[in-house]
Amino acid sequence: NVEASIPEPLREAWRKYSASEFTNKEEFEKELVRHIETTLARSLYNCDENAAYSGTALAFRDRLIIEWNKTQQRQTFTDQKRVYYLSLEFLMGRALDNAMLNVGMKDAARDGLSDLGFRIEDVIAQEHDAALGNGGLGRLAACFLDSMATLNYPAWGYGLRYRYGIFKQEIVNGYQMEVPDYWLDNNPWEFPRHEITVDIQFYGRVKNHQNENGKVVHTWEDGEIVQAVAYDVPIPGYGTKTTNNLRLWSSKASSGEFDFQKFNAGDYESAVADQQNAETISAVLYPNDNLERGKELRLKQQYFWCAASLFDIVRRFKKTRRAWNEFPDQVAIQLNDTHPTLAIVELQRILIDEEGLEWDEAWNIVTKTFGYTNHTVLPEALEKWSVPLMQNLLPRHLQLIYDINLFFLQTVEKRFPKDREMLSRVSIIEESHPKMVRMAYLAIIGSHKVNGVAELHSDLLKTTLFKDFVEIYGPDRFTNVTNGVTPRRWLHQANPLLSALIAEKLGGHEFLTDLTLLDKLEAFVDDKDFRHEWAHIKTMNKLRLAKFIKSTTGHEVDPNSLFDIQVKRIHEYKRQQLNIFGVIHRYLTIKDMSAEEKKKVVPRVSIFGGKAAPGYWMAKTIIHLINKVADVVNKDADIGNLLKVIFIEDYNVSKAEIICPASDLSEHISTAGTEGSGTSNMKFVMNGGLIIGTCDGANIEITREIGENNIFLFGNLAEDVEELRHRHFYGDFQLDPQLAKVFAAIKSNMFGDAADFSALTASIEEHGDYYLVSDDFNSYITTHGMVDEAFKNKEEWLAKSITSVARMGFFSTDRVINEYADSIWNVEPLEIKD
Ligand code: T68
């Protein structure tokens, strides 16, 4: 018992002077002023909004530290199973508002700040987003952290501390420009742990020796060493004392500042170069979503992070002095996509090479420890690493991968004798030139559970990509855990007005921790006053967005128009091109109308936002087209307010918090069978927006929950996609006639030089229309027509909006995390008491 080992007088002194938490406005203000005057060395006379932000953040940080320490101590003493979420991306967004709401002191902070002359919204807006992610995958990890803490699970996140997060997007003359996102200056939310370091090895060679028992042992020698330094970020749960830890690794040269030997030998430049080389590993987030490019630095990042995290986890386990076979009872590790798959190999290496376990015993521990989540079926996103590259960088790991593969193929051969095709299909090694390591297969083989992120997606995995593995392992290894979002950030924080109205009707904020309670809202669907308030809140949120649009783009948009929003990474499979072609079609249609006809048109604002990977030319072309169409439409006097097109620059988490509550309609229109789940669809519906979408990803389950009458579905089904593509390939393709008119307009240089967009139109007309834009176009514009009609009936629209929100309880990440905990991790919550 660690507690008892400390003498009572010492404990008494600590207790007496132990830091305490502010509990009201006055105490908060005192802390705020103290931080501004001492920590920041500012005064009443030079305290700007930024200083007010820093002071507030520091005051809340103190609170979090106290609860964080308690949580970590309690979790260590209790020593029950922990879960480790390994993700190369954590798209956290801002932390202050979240911290205030989760500890329940936002009102005190608002009043305290107001006493000192600040508006809380302006103070919150000073914070730089923590943007260590690309899109859905990274944001999902952030929502998971929030739910794991809220549900009191002993859980850690492990990631990389990138010096540069996702780039900032600027639109210049209609083109995307990328600006580096240096975000680390004055970040109060991270704690450097300079004492927690791990040496990570690269390159070198493997030597075989015989030990005293005649057994062959392997040592990995020479090579280069880079040091991993831990930076910790506290993760507060909502309405609980549990404050978990997110540990991010930063790289630096192993001998500290410089290699002193080189330095003293007069080789100053090369000493500096080595240091910079080491620091490069955690320098920048790769800005591709759903695309893998096989760059060596990316593999270095992956190993650096996996090895540091595994060392840390194993070190913590070894302190408990348990037997190795208890490891899976103490540790669950979840792999967020294949990016951390090397962790499987690294654990096997530690157990065999360093701890001296036998292969089978070690492998049994490994497979019981890991779970793997797949997020995509897109072939270009599946990770493969070239064997020569891996041989050079991680020679021992490549050997182990070959051994893992050998033992695996031997068991397959026993089950399916003489099926050579099967063996080559499921081999971890693809026999190409060069040979490639298929990371998804390695992840499946090294895990006890594999899950997809929505029902359709998980089914597709089982019937296509991972079909052979279902035969080999049986169906039980494969499961589905449909994604969700945290209602704290995406309802309560993003939409305080709606959250307050719901709380008023339901008699409290309990729905924020049990989202199924939203179903009680259905009782009020026909309540006139309630509908009126609901509509009023939507208008307020649209006004907030309109104000934001005005201040960032200069355009005025009318909040009475239908706000039609598509915000997400720009990708051909997500089909922003379908949307902008639809907008052009609408523009041409309105231009052809008589004054009488125009009176019946429902005014629209088409809002786009999203980043294209810097090397993804087609995605950049789509952005360019959207911006050019906006230029033409927005200044066309024939059109006036009937149609506006807005591109919101630099879409990110904090902007999403303003955008999601303001939609009437949002678009989730990927080619059927291509979107793993989608999560913004959930955010929009939770905030009372309706959606237009394809039968893809979680749209299908959203439909099942909220009812077919409350969603606008269109387009071909996943089961028909292959057949259509096949037909296109053999020349059976006709451009949809409406789409042909759109293309004719583009080619007439209506939106600037048509040559700028020829790749985009050609991919459809000439190169097989892989994403079925033409096949779905008619259905898409017809369905938009139905949206217009529905929007004219305000009362019915409101009923759909309210009913949908009431039925969204399923999509909380609390439900998701409980499913992972029960069916994959086998971990129990641990409540933190005072
Ligand atoms: C997304 N994936 C899925 N990937 O596309 C989306 N990829 O359907 C799903 O809802 C979401 O994951 C959460 O499950 C991504 O966001 C990436 O960002 C990514 C990053 C690097 C490499 C590959």
User: What is the total number of structural domains?
Assistant: 3
Oligomer: single chain
Structural class: alpha/beta
Provide mean pLDDT, rounded: 96
CATH architecture of the largest domain: 3-Layer(aba) Sandwich
Beta-strand segment tally: 24
User: Would you tell me which CATH topology of the largest domain applies?
Assistant: Rossmann fold
Bound molecules: ligand T68
How many whole angstroms does the radius of gyration measure? 28 Å
The parts where pLDDT drops under 50 for at least 5 residues are: none
- The CATH superfamily of the largest domain turns out to be Glycogen Phosphorylase B
Structure explained in plain terms:
- This protein is an alpha/beta fold.
- It has three domains: 18-78 and 95-128, no CATH class; 79-94 and 129-482 and 821-825, 3-Layer(aba) Sandwich (Rossmann fold), CATH 3.40.50; 487-719 and 783-806, Rossmann fold, CATH 3.40.50.
- It is built from 34 helices and 24 strands.
- The strands form six sheets. It has a nine-stranded mixed β-sheet with strand order 7-10-11-4-1-12-13-17-18, sandwiched between helices. The chain has a six-stranded parallel β-sheet with strand order 21-20-19-22-23-24, sandwiched between helices.
- Strand 10 (224-236) and strand 11 (243-253) form a beta hairpin.
- Helix 3 packs across helix 4 and helix 10 (296-319) crosses helix 12.
- It is globular.
- The site of ligand T68 has 19 residues, from helix 7.
- Belongs to the glycogen phosphorylase family.
- It catalyses: [(1->4)-alpha-D-glucosyl](n) + phosphate = [(1->4)-alpha-D-glucosyl](n-1) + alpha-D-glucose 1-phosphate.
- The modification N6-(pyridoxal phosphate)lysine is found at residue 683.
- Keywords: Allosteric enzyme, Carbohydrate metabolism, Glycosyltransferase, Pyridoxal phosphate, Transferase.
- Its cofactor is pyridoxal 5'-phosphate.
